[in-house]
Write a structure and sequence with these properties.
This protein is mainly α and about 110 residues long. About 55% of the residues lie in helices and about 0% in strands.
């Protein structure tokens, strides 16, 4: 598992926290959606992250590892784009990160 350790550092929400978050209007309000899909890429990724967090490391597949790599890349790239003057707590920036399992206010 090439990305496992980085993934566990990048994702700072528990499966329950992320699952609860994904059920909110705020979570559904952000992210890129394709024309035929009502769910954003980040929201779909969040559902997969919940499943990954609940999977034993020994049971993870190469496909899971690839997705963990995407999560790490997204979180690192998005953290570098923090808003300068916006209230971070209610920002679309934070909401998008949370869909990918990282709450920047969690520390």
């Amino acid at each position: 598992m090439e990305h496992y350790e980085d993934f566990t550092r990048a994702v700072n929400m528990t499966p329950k926290q992320l699952e609860d978050w994904l059920g909110t209007e705020e979570s559904l309000s952000v992210g890129q959606k394709s024309d035929e899909d009502a769910e954003s890429t980040g929201h779909a990724s969040g559902r997969r992250i919940v499943a990954l967090l609940r999977t034993r490391k020994a049971d993870l597949t190469d496909d899971d590892d690839q997705h963990m790599g995407k999560v790490v890349s997204y979180v690192h790239r998005h953290l570098a784009q923090a808003p300068a003057k916006e209230d971070v707590a209610t920002s679309r920036w934070r909401y998008s990160l949370m869909n990918w399992g990282h709450d920047p206010l969690k520390g």
